[in-house]
Amino acid sequence: MLDPTALRTFLTVVHTGGFSAAARQLDVGQSTVSGHIARLEKQVGRTLLRRDTHSVELTADGSVMAGFARSILDECDRALSYFTDDGITGRIRFGVSEDLVATGTPEILRRFRTDHPRVDIELTIGLSEDLHTSLRAGSLDLVLAKRNPGQRHGQLIFTEPLVWAGAPDTVLRPGDPIPLVTFPEPSISRTAALAALADAGLDHRITCVSNNQQGLRAAVLAGLGVMVHARRLLPADVVELDGLPDPGLTEVVVITRRRPATRAEAALLAVLRSATW
Fold first, then answer.
1. Which residues on adjacent β-strands are paired with residue 50?
2. Which residues does 58 contact at the CB level (< 8 Å), separation at least 6?
3. Which fold has domain 2-79?
4. Of 100, 145, 148, 256, which has the fewest Cβ atoms less than 10 A away?
5. For the segment 7-40, what is each residue's pLDDT rounded down to a tens digit?
6. CA-closest candidate to residue 273, choices 151, 93, 142, 130
7. CATH of 89-144+250-272, one of 3.40.50.300, 1.10.4200.10, 3.40.190.10, 3.40.50.720
8. Cα-atom radius of gyration of the chain, to the nearest Å?
9. Structural contact between residues 65 and 27, judged by C-beta atoms closer than 8 angstroms
10. Rounded CA gap, 223 and 170, in Å?
11. What is the pTM of this model?
């Protein structure tokens, strides 16, 4: 059986780039680090690290072992968390806005599940306004979504500029209606786009309506039009565009039902508030 301590030392050497740096991070002697690596290499019968006086590099077998080591240690951590967790159990029906779910949400939920393995999460992905409606109807317990500035529901997580976005080679001809790619109603970004164009006296035509972010991305990259989107949540390969009226700001909030939060919900709220987005 592979020794978790040796595996953790091995990954620390890989992460820090050397035996001395790994020893400092682990607060052990360099000889201890060398012994862990030697024991691991002996156990598997392969050279895992190629080292000289200046650097440490993974061998081909070392690269494979790094993947195995991460998986093994993740499972060890999950097992320890299960048997040493704080006793929080329950179910959370959690709604997440379509454009938020592809950013930091997966890693946040993964960390939460590791820390609280006996909490079941039922994830619903949708448009912010639809999630608000489901929460009010009692079919969701907690929602991570957007709201318009000035609204008061929910606890603020961060404020973000809305921007116009499209393909890198987007060209808008002066005088032509603005080709708009958008979520269906109700949509905060759709409302912001239409209001900005109306205030500027610009005509528009809707060229694509999609209820998911991948559909919006495909449409703008195909050259069908432009969209309004939160800046830090822009899909891959979509770029911010200049020359169109400012669509304003949006606020990302977490909202709970009108009752005291359960212990499980309070734990997830704390993770969401402390996360780096």
1. 57
2. 14, 48, 49, 50, 66
3. Arc Repressor Mutant, subunit A (1.10.10)
4. 148
5. 999 999 988 888 988 888 888 999 999 999 999 9
6. 142
7. 3.40.190.10
8. 25
9. no
10. 7
11. 0.63
